[in-house]
Write a structure and sequence with these properties.
Strand order of the largest sheet: 1-2-3
Number of domains: 1
Largest sheet: 3 strands, antiparallel
Strand content: 5-15%
Mean pLDDT: 83
Distance between the termini: 47 Å
């Protein structure tokens, strides 16, 4: 049974205009990651490009703030440690530039 008819007829729910049904093989964006379903059944997650770009802009801003004595090195180190944990969670092994 197609998903749309199952949801509408059996569950008595309606889709709104924003709802998109797609396969996991195409990937799903969620919380800064893109999740994919592999042929083996394993779900992998990758960091979204936008998330990486936001971090790069933030790092550039912190660099400027440090030069202008608005933040300390310890503030930057804490932020870097937090982002490192985020990357490890994402299993993103390309590293930080």
């Amino acid at each position: 049974m197609p998903m749309k008819s199952y949801v509408e007829e059996d569950l008595l729910l309606r889709f709104n205009k924003k709802t998109q049904l797609t396969t996991m093989k195409n990937g799903v964006d969620y919380l800064g990651f893109r999740f994919y379903l592999m042929d083996t059944g394993k779900v992998i997650r990758r960091l979204r490009t936008g998330s990486k770009r936001r971090w790069e802009r933030r790092l550039k801003k912190m660099k400027r703030q440090y030069r202008e004595d608005e933040i300390t090195f310890e503030d930057i180190a804490r932020s870097m440690a937090s982002y490192k944990g985020f990357i490890i969670f994402a299993a993103w092994h390309k590293g930080i530039r």
